[in-house]
Specification:
The complex is a heterodimer.
Chain A (H helix, E strand, L loop, with lengths): L11 E6 L3 H12 L4 E5 L13 E3 L3 H10 L4 H8 E7 L9 E6 L1 H14 L3 E5 L2 E7 L2 E7 L4 E9 L8 E4 L2 E4 L11 H7 L5 E7 L2 E3 L9 E3 L16 H4 L1 H5 L17 E5 L2 H9 L5 H4 L13 H7 L7 E6 L6 E5 L7 H9 L9 E3 L2 E7 L17 E3 L9 H19 L13 H12 L23 H4 L1 H6 L5 H23 L8 H7 L16 H12 L1 H18 L17 H10 L4 H5 L6 H22 L1
Parallel strand pairs in A: 1-2, 1-9, 2-6, 9-20
Antiparallel strand pairs in A: 3-5, 4-5, 7-8, 8-9, 10-11, 10-19, 12-19, 13-17, 13-18, 14-15, 15-16, 16-17
Helix pairs in contact in A: 1-12, 2-12, 3-4, 8-11, 16-18
Chain B lengths: L3 E5 L8 E7 L3 H7 L11 E7 L5 E10 L10 E7 L2 H13 L2 E3 L4 H8 L5 H26 L2 H25 L10 H29 L2 E7 L5 H9 L17 E7 L2 E7 L9 H16 L2 E7 L10 H9 L2 E6 L17 E4 L8 H16 L11 H22 L4 H19 L4 H11 L5
Helix pairs in contact in B: 5-6, 5-12, 5-13, 6-11, 11-12
The chains are: A alpha+beta, B alpha/beta.
């Protein structure tokens, strides 16, 4: 851990630019792989900041956080330890689509993550604004900073979030910055363009924040957390030192009990009124969204309140959730009220909502517009197809969400370090988990709006229940060094135990005369009985056994279907494959293949505009190409 | 395991012979199971009966097995030479699909040959070009075939399924959003409606088959009611031997005639009675065979006697199960105008045996019945070929499973798989709709954004 300035001869293995959710995971993952890592951030006080809602997880996202944990990332632990309310979503539906979510203490979340970075071996943390790339022969060698000096790295991971050429909008007022009150990343955009990397504009927005003691909570519906919290991280496989690593090693040990990581707060529910809607309709012309000042595309799943009112004019009310931002502050996040109307209108809108009549805005709502680099310019390892050794992760890839960013950071970090250490790349395929779906969607299909995970994006979501993440990735742990040997061994034993217990429950009969397995499929949970020793198993094992028995038939079908994908996925296309010279391929198809550069035949088949006949032809030439190159090397 | 692929190697349509090629691992299993050819010597021809999985004989065929070392594709292969009747080839192909074969994509046999090292690069290159050309061609062809009513119908079904799925997925993926309760009953009604539409298409597939082959019209009735003279009158030639002694027509006779735009095969069979002679017994046996395959009956009775003798029970059953025209022959000798006592009675017409009186009326009624069978002029007049029939059936099965499981309380996240699978079948027929299309509907229909 040294700060090496202007030293091209002794480069870092990995330089990570940006310390948001992607950057933190990238830096930690890379250093855990054994790389010598430099993490640069424009501001040490905004590490891992939740710029929008103070919550981690949710549908599709909660599952990603569990996968991050299974792959050795930090987000799950960090959320668990700083959570102030836990809620398992979709409990009325099957386990397959249940997802954990937690309200977190925004500041505690940042501070803990910062401390993790500070303690991480092989990781150097430094505050500097990156303003350019050092590229030689289409290969990235390092970065320049606004302070005039440079850092050299064998690989560079860019995680600029919403900061690239960013502008914020409140009504007519427009200012530079990737977050209200923050800077913007200048210079980098032109460097990307210079090296052939295309950029586009996206837009996103955030609601106003209110002062809690100006809110009248009386009469508002209370939303409490679960009494039995569902956490993100896997604790049964970890040793104690792996569980509380920061807490145990901090310089100033905490005296007394740890207060976070439990249900401490309540959220509240209110809704917009006809007055709100009239106000918005009357002032639409003042919203930069409708005036045309914002050209970037915004997310449809997270529309501004003006969008909701206009597009769903038949609804006379929209839900508003009030969520506390932490336990050491009285700042409240007003979920559902994202807007970029002028501030005076925002005030009136707030006052038109029950409970908020006298509420005081302490941070206005705003929209932010920023550059992203269409992710079809990336490999599955998240390395650029255009500039060697340059990796991208997070919102710069056109995604939204802390979880999606964290997942990409993890994959980019692992791969950047593996590249620097001259190891083969680490890929997660779409039949292996939500992270696989995420990266495959991004690199193959690209994005048309800020991308967020939805369970419906996964063809085989039944296989991706949040509790199974560790088991699903077990084969990865064997090949890639993602966990301590003890955790790996524990996971392996647990999976064995899952299989043994399924067998036991399928063959042994309960007192009712039918097998335990049959009972699981036919009796309500409250009436279930198990052999005595089953109750002593770790929770994760018990839940997985029950899950696999409940869904047995469906899971079999899904596994077969997922295997079919895998066959095409195993058919690797060499990066040097000359599409242009293939007779019989249509021009449109050649262009697409050249642009996306699919790494497998399976990925190629998912590119829009490539049809089955094209795949047939490609298959023929690939076999030939592989055979010829094999003959050459013999 | 790789797929076993099949294709018709000879042109579609009437011909003396047709050849179906099979290539892949289960070729030998098919020789064993469908053709009862337990241990075929490679490259030897065997004369066998082709039986469906249900044991029904489809045709007498000649099969030749090629082991993987000696076949064109380098996979185990089987060639089936059958009679060149489109119906037979379609039924064999359909049975092969039931046995887990799949219809080959353009050029796929050659692709297998290349991958197995049977042909070299220049050969493969020329094939690749052919694949490309054929693909354009078949796409154009498919589009032409599909332009119009059938594609409109399938598109609307695809759209409906997307809408349903959007609603289900919205409730799964946005549990905290302010969405109205999912209308299970409405969803079920909609799926049921789609199931009905698909069933109508399957019926149409049956009808389409009648358009691609001759319609089999079987004359049936007791001996000496004048079947053969009617046959001759319709055929316009003195084809069948006419004799007043009971049981003259011992074998059966066929003649093709055209009525309206339809080609029909007219079949004259032996009269049905308790035969005395062995040779007649054989004839009667054959009559029953013919009757089973009939698309339509001309049931001939003698109108000059008051109460015709009832037909044997199995005939009555067959006649009642298929479209039938009751022909009261010899009306010049008497007009008792008997009507069978079941409901609704078949259409009936009177003719004279000698003077050909009533023949025009008979032909008109026959055409009417045929039009009814084929659905000509009705709004459901789609051409649905075997390829589509299989896909529509699969689609239908998925939706039926959806309804059944959903009724039994299986979760939305699981039954939604059936909608995805149903969509895949439609995708093959009318082009792919992606998950993005579903999301477009979802975000258009539901106010998302907690």
């Amino acid at each position: 851990m040294t700060l090496r300035v202007n030293t091209p001869k002794t480069p870092y293995d990995v330089i990570v630019c940006g310390a948001g959710h992607a950057g933190c995971e990238a830096a930690i993952a890379a250093s855990k792989q054994g790389a010598d890592v430099l993490l640069l951030t424009g501001n040490l006080d905004t590490i891992a900041q939740m710029s929008c809602n103070p919550a981690i997880g949710g549908q599709g996202k909660g599952q990603i956080v569990c996968e991050i944990d299974a792959l050795g990332g930090e987000m799950a632990l960090n959320a668990d330890f700083t959570a102030i309310q836990f809620k398992l979503l979709n409990t009325s539906k099957g386990k397959a689509v249940q997802a954990p979510r937690a309200q977190c203490d925004k500041k505690a979340y940042q501070l803990r993550m910062k401390h993790v970075l500070e303690q991480q071996p092989n990781l150097t943390l430094f505050q500097a604004m990156v303003d350019g790339l050092i590229v030689e022969n289409s290969s990235c060698k390092g970065v320049t900073t606004s302070m005039g000096f440079s850092f050299y790295g064998k690989t560079v991971v860019v995680t600029t979030g919403t900061f690239l050429q960013a502008s914020t909008h409140i009504g007519q007022s427009k200012s530079e910055g990737g977050r209200l009150g923050d800077h913007t990343a200048k210079g980098l955009s032109s460097h990307f363009i210079k090296h052939g990397i295309k950029l586009n504009r996206f837009k996103t927005g955030t609601p106003p924040r209110l002062l809690g003691n100006s809110i009248n909570f009386n009469g508002l519906a209370v939303q409490s957390g679960d009494s039995d919290p569902t956490k993100f991280a896997f604790y049964d496989s970890r040793t104690d030192t792996e569980m509380f690593h920061v807490e145990q090693n901090r310089r100033w040990p905490i005296k007394g009990s740890h207060v976070l990581g439990s249900n401490l707060v309540k959220c509240f529910l209110t809704s917009t009124t006809s007055t709100t809607h009239k106000l918005i309709n009357d002032n639409l012309h003042l919203s930069p969204l409708y005036k045309g000042d914002i050209i970037g595309t915004g997310p449809r799943y997270c529309p501004s309140i003006e969008d909701k009112v206009v597009r769903f004019s038949n609804k006379d009310s929209h839900r508003i959730h009030l969520e506390p931002e932490g336990v050491n502050t009285d700042e409240w996040y007003i979920n559902g009220l994202s807007t970029c109307l002028p501030f005076n209108i925002q005030q009136k809108v707030i006052q038109s909502i029950p409970g908020l009549e006298d509420a005081m805005i302490i941070r206005p709502a705003y929209a932010v517009e920023y550059d992203y680099a269409p992710p079809t310019q990336l490999k599955l390892s998240l390395e650029s197809l255009l500039v060697d050794s340059l990796f991208f992760a997070g919102q710069i890839n056109g995604t939204s969400g802390y979880e999606e960013a964290g997942a990409q950071g993890l994959i980019a970090g692992i791969n950047a370090s593996r590249k620097a250490l001259e190891l083969e790349s680490f890929e997660i395929l779409r039949n292996e988990g939500y992270i696989g779906v995420l990266i495959d969607d991004l690199t193959t299909k690209g994005v048309t709006e800020p991308y967020r995970m939805l369970t419906s994006r996964a063809e085989h979501r039944l296989l991706f229940n949040h509790g199974s993440a560790e088991y699903r990735f077990l084969s990865k742990f064997e090949t890639y060094n993602l966990h301590s040997p003890s955790r790996r061994e524990n996971i392996r034993n647990q999976l064995k135990s899952v299989k043994t217990w399924i067998n036991i429950l399928e063959t042994n009969k309960a007192s009712s005369g039918i097998t335990y397995a049959h009972q699981i499929k036919s009796v309500s949970t409250s009436e279930l009985t198990f052999p005595e020793s089953f109750y002593n198993l770790p929770r994760s094992v018990k839940e997985e056994v029950i899950y696999r028995i409940t869904y047995e038939g469906y899971l079999k079908r899904e596994i077969t279907a997922a295997k079919r994908i895998k066959n095409a996925e195993n058919f690797v296309i060499p990066s040097s494959f000359p599409y242009t010279t293939l007779p019989g391929l249509r021009t449109e198809c050649i262009e697409k293949l050249n642009q996306i550069k699919p790494s497998t035949l399976g990925q190629a088949s998912r590119i829009s505009g490539v049809n089955p006949a094209d795949i047939s032809i490609l298959h023929i030439y690939l076999e030939r190409f592989n055979k010829l190159s094999k003959d050459d090397s013999d | 395991m790789t797929d076993t692929i099949i294709a018709l190697a000879t042109p579609v349509g009437e011909s003396a012979l047709a050849v179906i090629r099979i290539s892949g691992q289960i070729s030998l299993t098919i020789a064993k199971q469908a053709c009862n050819c337990i241990n075929p010597n490679p490259r030897n021809a065997y004369l066998v009966n082709y039986r469906t999985s249900d044991g029904e004989i489809l045709d007498q065929v000649v099969i030749t097995f090629f082991n993987n070392g000696n076949s064109y594709t380098g996979e185990d292969s089987l060639e089936i030479s059958c009679h060149g009747n489109p119906l037979i080839t379609e039924m064999i192909c359909k049975d092969l699909i039931n046995r887990e074969c799949r219809i080959a994509q353009p050029g796929e046999f050659t692709r297998q040959a290349f991958l197995n090292g049977k042909i070299d690069l220049p050969q493969a290159e020329s094939v690749a070009q052919i694949i490309a050309a054929k693909n354009e061609q078949s796409l154009a062809l498919a589009q032409r075939n599909l332009k119009g009513k059938l594609s409109d119908k399938l598109l609307s079904i695809q759209q409906n399924i997307l809408n349903l799925q959007a609603s289900i997925e919205a409730h799964i993926d946005f549990p905290e959003d302010d969405l109205d309760e999912n209308d299970q009953e409405g969803i079920h009604q909609n799926v049921k409606k789609i199931v009905k539409e698909l069933e109508a298409l399957l019926l149409q597939a049956k009808r389409t088959k009648l358009l691609t082959k001759n319609i089999k019209v079987v004359l049936t009735g007791l001996p000496n009611v004048g079947k053969s003279s009617l046959f001759n009158a319709l055929a316009g030639k003195n084809r069948a031997l006419i004799h007043s002694e009971s049981g003259t027509t011992r074998d059966y006779l066929e003649f093709d005639i055209k009525i309206g735009k339809y080609w029909i095969t007219l079949v004259d069979t032996a009269g049905i009675h308790d035969a005395a002679e062995e040779i007649e017994l054989a004839g009667i046996e054959m009559s029953l065979e013919q009757a089973k395959e009939a698309d339509l009956f001309l049931w001939v009775i003698d109108n000059s006697v008051p109460h015709p003798i009832e037909l044997p029970g199995e005939y009555t059953k067959l006649i009642r199960s298929k479209p039938t025209l009751l022909i009261r022959n010899k009306s010049d000798l008497g007009e008792y105008n008997w009507v069978p006592d079941y409901n609704p009675p078949p259409k009936a017409t009177n003719i004279s045996s000698t003077g050909k009186r009533g023949l025009k009326q008979l032909e008109a009624l026959l055409l009417e019945i045929i039009q009814n069978i084929t659905g000509e002029g009705s709004e459901n007049e789609y051409l649905v070929g075997v390829r589509h029939e299989v896909l529509i059936k699969n689609c239908l099965n998925e939706l039926t499973s959806f309804l059944l499981e959903s009724k039994n309380g299986v979760g939305d996240e699981i039954v939604s798989i059936h909608l995805t699978e149903a969509r895949k079948e439609l995708d093959i027929m009318i082009g792919r709709k992606t998950n993005e299309d579903m999301l477009d509907i979802l975000f258009g229909e539901f106010c998302i954004g907690k």
